[in-house]
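User: Structure tokens for this complex, please. No commentary.
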Amino acid sequence: MIESSAPNESFDAKSAPKDSGHAPAFLGGGELGQRMCAFDWQTTPLGAPSTWPTALTTLVEVMLQSRQPMFLAWGDARTMLYNDAYATVLGARHPDALGRPFFDVWHDIIDVVKPIMDKAFAGESTHMDDLMLLIHRHGYPEEAHFAFSYTPVRGGSGTVMGMFCACTETTKEVMARRREIAESERLENMFAMAPSFMAILRGPRHIFESTNAAYNRLIGRDDIIGRSVREALPDIAGQGFFEILDEVYATGQPFVNQDAKVTFQTSEDSAPTDRYVSFIFQPIKGDDGEVTGVFIDGHDVTERMISQGALTESETRFREMADNAPNFIWMTEPSGGCTYVNQRWHSFTGQTAQDVCGNGWLDAVHPDDLEEVRLALQQAHVDHDVFELEYRLRQEDGTYVWTLNTAQPRFTTDGTFVGLLGSGLDIDERKDFEERQALMVRELHHRVKNTLATVQAIIGFTLRTSTDMESFRTGVSNRIASLARSHSSLTDAEWQGMDLRAVLRSELEPYDNGKRLILKGPRVFLSSDTVVPLTMAVHELTTNAVKYGALSNEDGQIEVRWSVTIGPEGEHLTLDWREIGGPEVCPPTRTGFGTTLLERLLGGQLNGSATMNYPAQGVEVQIKAQLRDAKVGTKP
Amino acid sequence: MTYRHIKGATVLVAEDNMLVALNIALALEDREARVLGPCARVSEALQMIEGANIAGAILDVDLIDGPVTPLAQALIAKGLPIVFCTGVGLPAELKALIPNAEVFLKPTEPERLIDKLNQMISSRMQASS
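Assistant:
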């Protein structure tokens, strides 16, 4: 590179020295023509122009007329002559270069140009393609490129007298080429680095011309340049892509596809892998419009498809689970409107998907609970909080059922509230249970008080009939034991009542050896209110029998027979207690507690009575009672 | 304590625990009172007091066939004193009906019930004389 350090000076022809020997060849030669006219050629080895050889004057004339930069280096001194166009190339070396030896002018690039110059003077033409110079064409240093051809000029004798050089400025071409290279490098870079996959196919067989890294990643190989798609990617044969390429090539119409599945299998041993791609096959056309190839550009969307697929699957799974759940499941949007209820809700309420939309689902809530539900829902949506409420929900048949509803706020990963996810449970049974339980607690309380009152009564009776402390102790103890027995039996029956036979057996059983006890009668169901005093009465009769009657010896028997008759007043029980085979009976001198109990118990009732007889062969008791609450079985 | 007002008087006993009822009845008889009942049912008791000349009543609040309220109303209508003996307390409707009701919680010795009834009969007789 040669830098000129100052702009060209403008030439003042008038200031040039006058010379008589100027040649007509200089006429019309522009600035240099005038300078040559004015130049004192006598000071150079060339001498006066009039003495110049024809070849020189001819070339000078040609040179000065040309707009192409040209110069001559003449004679052994290589004296320089040049035209206006070359003055630009010379830059600051002009105008001093005129008539000076070439090597003086270009002393700084003598290494480059001397061999060329010497070659020319040896008779050999040389061409120099690109010489870069910094020139001041526009008032500032500027990169310029030139091509030079050095041609020897021979005299009549055939010896080389000088060298003629025509220059061609190639700056534009060089710059254009440089831009082109840069652009193509940029494109190549883009192509290579692009996140989308790209490939260029040439010809009807779709030969891979180039592919980028993304494309190679997609197909899982990088040895495909120069091979046809069918050769390079045999594993995707039969998936329709080759046929589409053929079609694009044949018709010149681009082909676009979204989320297409392509299955690669890079080798026999490897497992096939599915990828999803969105791509375009763009035909590449020549200047004549003929298709010369296909440009492939696309994105690997596998990850998106997989996550979307996973989402779809998890959504499907959720719906399946929700629809098969025994609970009600519902979802709302942030504003509180219902967006989803599960199948259970639909089948329970009879509401259609249309019905539940927005606030429609609340139509199934009991009118008395509606306001509370509305407020609680509203609050949960405002506070993004949990929701828990019990309310009644209408079934399809119009009846209401208690439900327990709980809901959690739903948030996206970035914390945005997106509504509630709720579930409801039919708690009618639980409500029932709770009510029953509360009732039972009250009932238990009542019963405990009653039992204490009963125990108090037993103590009272026993005191009445006891002659001494010992008989009081046994009396109270036995009676409380009897009371405990009837309580146990009643508890087993959940205090619903007891069968008459069971009441009799509970007191008499300990004295039975398989022969002493005869119980005959139908199933008679006694209410729990009746069971306790009746057990007590049987206890008293049994105690008497053990002390004085049929159970006081080894082989006495007790026979109890009963029957139920249904009259206009209801059901009547008649029970006969008969003692057989005991010691001879003496009528008691005082009324026993058992008798009092029976007589008073039944005597207090309308249509009830207890009759005691004391024949010598054994005690006989007849009990008549009206069974209002009792249930009578049909089987004996 | 004398039982001059109870002696010879007829007292209704309505109590569905028959052993408790009997205990009360026997205690009344010890004081030479006449016992109407004991009744375990409201319906029975209502039938029994028809035309009977009774001086007062000892009532449980719940009988086999339901709350004793209708019976209490009938007795109040006759201006008769009532002593309640209950395991659980007086239900609201009875409280409303008889704001100053005499209520004893089970278990209560029969004598205490009878004392109270005797006292009530006595003050009623003084008031009317």
